[in-house]
UniProtKB/TrEMBL annotation:
Reaction catalyzed: uridine(2604) in 23S rRNA = pseudouridine(2604) in 23S rRNA; uridine(35) in tRNA(Tyr) = pseudouridine(35) in tRNA(Tyr)
EC code: 5.4.99.21
Domain RNA-binding S4: 10-66
PANTHER family per record: PSEUDOURIDINE SYNTHASE FAMILY PROTEIN-RELATED (PTHR47683), RNA-BINDING S4 DOMAIN-CONTAINING PROTEIN (PTHR47683:SF2)
Taxonomy of the source species: Bacteria, Pseudomonadati, Pseudomonadota, Betaproteobacteria, Burkholderiales
Protein's name according to its UniProt entry: Dual-specificity RNA pseudouridine synthase RluF
Length: 257
């Protein structure tokens, strides 16, 4: 009989990310500091491990991770999600003491260190409003925008159909609504099924599990609709709620995407 195949290996940083311990970048930083042990030995950079290997993380890494914040921002029109572009400011510039929502139930106090490494976990177009997540935590980023992410995003989308701006629901063909739900392709690739329903005669509710660039606007164009307003109201289990536009709050301890 042929001998058993050797167990497959992956880089330690990938294994730690797959286990949900941290992001790959965090894993590299911890390994560099000597905060990670594999089978009782301090792990070197680039180490290959198997599923059977025992991984231990120093308490200092866990303490550092607990201090990382995730911020929920109600992005207004005119701000870009990430790096500044074409003279427009990035949304992170809105995270400052005077724009911290007074209704935030979190007891976390704002500190300038919380801006270090704070990055958007997903995008929201410059002409769209609503919930944008900014985080220092690689685990949150991976959950929301990782390759295997399956988190729902919910949007309210105001539309027009040709010259019809009022009572769009009555003028829009049911077959085209069905195409929005499943049957469209973008960039040569079929889109995942989506939940699309009328919220009122001029507004659709979209629930997606993917986020291609300007996806909803492009989907609507394919069926003859023009988007005149787009607002993201939920990501996973976290809703925009009463958070005012241009203001932010911390993700609460009991909140989960």
């Amino acid at each position: 009989m042929p001998p058993d195949a050797p167990p497959s290996t992956v880089r330690l940083n990938k294994r730690m990310a797959d286990l949900g311990l941290c992001s790959r970048r965090e894993a590299d930083a911890w390994i560099e500091r000597g905060w990670v042990r594999v089978n009782g030995e301090v792990a070197p950079m680039g180490l290959q491990v198997t599923e059977a290997d025992r991984i231990e993380v120093d308490r200092r890494a866990e303490g550092q991770q607990r201090q990382q914040v995730t911020i929920l921002l109600h992005k207004p029109i005119g701000y870009v999600s990430g790096q500044a572009e074409d003279g427009y400011q990035p949304a992170v510039t809105l995270v400052q003491p005077r724009t911290h929502w007074s209704g935030d139930p979190s007891r976390v106090r704002f500190a300038r260190e919380q801006l270090r490494g704070l990055a958007p976990a997903g995008r929201l177009d410059i002409d769209s409003t609503g919930l944008l997540v900014l985080t220092q935590d690689g685990r949150v980023a991976r959950q929301l925008i990782g390759e295997d992410s399956d988190i729902e995003k919910e949007y309210l989308v105001r539309v027009e159909y040709g010259a019809v701006a009022r009572g769009v629901q009555g003028a829009f063909p049911a077959a085209q609504l069905q195409r929005l739900r499943h049957g469209l392709s973008l960039d040569g690739k079929a889109l995942k099924p989506a939940r699309v329903d009328w919220q009122n005669p001029e507004q659709l509710r979209f629930v997606l599990k993917e986020g291609k660039k300007r996806q909803i606007r492009r989907m609507c164009e394919l069926v003859g609709l023009r988007v005149v307003g787009l607002k993201r109201v939920r990501i996973g289990g976290v809703a925009l709620g009463q958070l005012p536009q241009g203001m932010w709050r911390y993700l609460g301890e009991g909140e989960r995407f």
